[in-house]
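Structure first, sequence second, as always.
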């Protein structure tokens, strides 16, 4: 029996969303740094396989049966295929562009969700003030990444940009699929298993098709990176995201992903000793204002 859905984000949802956004921002820089040792699609596929195994073990320990006939097979396969394609685009795109530039294109996902989901789920329709809030948040992201565009934009190729834009669209379509199909009534672990399972099968095959070299002689950094990507990124944070999608409005949740590029820029500043500029601080204010506007309840 699923818990009743809520029409607004409570303190629990906000805390979980902030934690996920923080790690996802850090993860973009981590993935980029690991590409020098592990090829992109191999890296992506390995983390999904590992996360799928963890999910199955976790469900077994709790006595949950994830393989049940609940009519979600078609939607689950579609969501899994979209999820796998998104990850392929992200990891391949990071070869051609910077992590910060890829992130801003990737996190156009909320616009696709907001534009497409109301066609199937009437309760997800945004009002004018909420659209303005999304615009404020996105303006904040662009402001935060202004230095990255100015300093590194010339080195980024159209290939990386297009792959990142495609990943954002695929993420949005995955969210729409989950909310507009039978998956909306399925448990969060089952929804996640469809994505991890399909992705874990498809991406290693794609890696082989691309001729990537599979190396198992990892440095301590690469091993730590893969452990974090698998356990925290692909297992814990995605399970939390799926849980939230089954209980809270997807359009209001999605605006929080605008924080991830800002966290990615902050992580880069701490890791690479880059200065935190006034533009970044102004961007944080804009993102916060956008989140407040989108999540303001109708009076």
């Amino acid at each position: 029996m699923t818990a009743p859905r809520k029409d607004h984000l409570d303190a629990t949802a906000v805390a979980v969303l902030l934690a996920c956004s923080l790690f996802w921002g850090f993860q973009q820089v981590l993935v980029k740094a690991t590409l020098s040792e592990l090829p992109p699609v191999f890296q992506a596929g390995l983390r999904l396989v590992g996360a799928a195994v963890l999910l199955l073990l976790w469900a077994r320990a709790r006595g949950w049966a994830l393989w049940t006939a609940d009519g979600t097979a078609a939607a689950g396969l579609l969501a899994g295929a979209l999820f796998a394609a998104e990850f392929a685009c992200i990891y391949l795109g990071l070869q051609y562009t910077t992590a910060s530039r890829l992130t801003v294109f990737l996190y156009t996902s909320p616009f696709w969700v907001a534009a497409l989901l109301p066609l199937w789920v009437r309760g997800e329709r945004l009002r004018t003030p909420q659209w303005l809030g999304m615009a404020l948040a996105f303006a904040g992201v662009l402001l935060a990444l202004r230095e990255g565009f100015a300093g590194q934009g010339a080195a980024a190729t159209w290939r990386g940009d297009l792959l990142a834009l495609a990943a954002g669209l695929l993420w949005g379509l995955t969210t729409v699929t989950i909310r507009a199909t039978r998956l909306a009534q399925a448990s969060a672990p089952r929804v996640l298993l469809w994505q991890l399972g399909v992705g874990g099968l498809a991406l290693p095959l794609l890696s082989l098709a691309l001729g990537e070299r599979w190396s198992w002689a990892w440095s301590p950094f690469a091993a730590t990176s893969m452990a974090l990507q698998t356990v925290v990124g692909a297992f814990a944070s995605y399970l939390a995201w799926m849980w939230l999608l089954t209980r809270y409005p997807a359009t209001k949740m999605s605006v929080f992903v605008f924080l991830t590029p800002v966290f990615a820029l902050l992580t880069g500043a701490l890791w690479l000793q880059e200065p935190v500029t006034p533009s970044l601080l102004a961007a944080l204010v804009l993102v916060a204002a956008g989140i407040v506007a989108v999540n303001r309840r109708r009076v």
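Margin note: The chain has 13 helices and no strands.
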